[in-house]
Design brief:
The protein is of the alpha/beta class. The chain contains 11 helices and 6 strands. The protein has one domain: SGNH hydrolase (Rossmann fold), CATH 3.40.50.
Length: 348
């Protein structure tokens, strides 16, 4: 393993690119065409905080130059956009820029999630202070930016909160690289989970009545995770630690029953076990974006993926994963359906 460590760590860093744990726990639904043709009885304005799986286009100014824009099989939408559409609205980025593009704030944008963002640490995945990398505004700052611009939440808003994946990947890299012990990483995961629970508490204290909180899916069974047993094991352990600590922290704060909890970790096992029934042809054994073709772009990431770099013409629907960790359009749609159903059930 020692001889392979530099290669594995480099690959981990590449796979970490602005990830927020893209292992979705989708339950039900077969494809995008199954979505209801009309709006549901409930209508909400969606506000979203998180990282790459929720990022609706922070880095689009650069990524769109090659047909990309979001962490999926572009031009497909990510789950937060699909949920916003379902409940009668749209969701656009609150801030754009990075990778050399100037930073611009958009007052009407309520999609604060940014690829690579951590829970509280501004030094996220691929962050560069000179503006030539990712922005990675942490989730705690995303929330503060919204409150500063718009004040408290209102009763007609649906707030989506997810995070922790970037923290997991960064600490997994440290463990695999030998700069951090397993115990150190465990403590870091517990702290990050507690911090995310505190953020959820602040969302509620700021007037939000409808809040969705998603834990982290098992990154260890992503295409990247299964590429090497040592990597997958570390990722699974840290993900489990984070999720358990998040539940414990929200229970301790008395907010667990005040939010709509989405368990990505539990449902990803169902997706993998029944991927053909869900409409996929390839589960976690391949990627919908051709990574060799993506190597010619700025980063080997689905952020820069487009139909010209698909593995197959219908890869956005037949593959579960766009790259080593991020979901395809179809998987995003299935996760969105899970969230939509949970929100409707909570508001009967």
């Amino acid at each position: 393993m020692k001889a392979r460590q530099p290669f594995l760590i480099n690959r981990l860093r590449t796979a970490m690119l602005l990830f927020a744990v893209a292992l979705f726990a989708a339950c039900g639904g077969s494809n995008d065409d199954d979505k209801p043709a009309t709006n549901p009885p409930l209508t909400f304005q969606v506000v979203s905080f998180g990282d790459s799986i929720s990022d609706v286009g922070t880095y689009a100014p650069v990524a769109q130059l090659v047909g990309g824009g979001r962490f999926t099989t572009n031009p497909g939408q990510v789950w937060t956009q699909v949920v916003a559409n379902f409940f009668g609205g749209t969701l656009t980025a609150a801030q754009t820029g990075g990778y050399g593009a100037p930073v611009e704030n958009h007052p009407n944008g309520l999609g604060y999630a940014q690829g690579g963002a951590r829970v509280t640490d501004p030094n996220g995945i691929k962050f560069k202070s000179n503006g030539l990398g990712a922005l990675t505004v942490p989730i705690t700052t995303q929330l503060q930016n919204h409150l500063s611009a718009h004040g408290n939440f209102n009763d007609n808003q649906l707030v989506l909160v997810q995070g922790g994946g970037s923290d997991i990947l960064i600490h997994a890299a440290a463990v695999l690289g030998g700069s951090e012990t397993n115990d150190d990483a465990t403590l870091a995961m517990t702290l990050a989970a507690q911090q995310l629970a505190a953020i959820v508490g602040k969302v509620l204290d700021s007037g939000a009545k409808h809040v969705v909180v998603s834990n982290v899916g098992n990154i260890g069974v992503s295409p990247f995770g299964i590429s090497d047993p040592s990597i997958g094991s570390v990722l699974t352990v840290l993900t489990t630690t984070f999720n358990s600590a998040l539940t414990t922290a929200m229970q301790a704060a008395g907010i667990q029953n005040r939010v709509i909890n989405i368990d990505q970790f539990a449902f990803i096992n169902d997706v993998l076990a029944h991927f053909k029934e869900k409409g996929f042809q390839v589960s976690n054994t391949g990627t919908g974006c051709n990574l060799q073709l993506l190597s010619k772009e700025l980063e080997i990431s689905s952020l820069f993926c487009s139909p010209k770099t698909y593995t197959a013409p219908d890869a956005d629907q037949t593959y579960m994963f766009a790259d080593d960790v991020h979901p395809t359009t179809h998987l995003h749609a299935l996760f969105a359906e899970l969230v939509e159903q949970a929100v409707q059930a909570a508001n009967k």
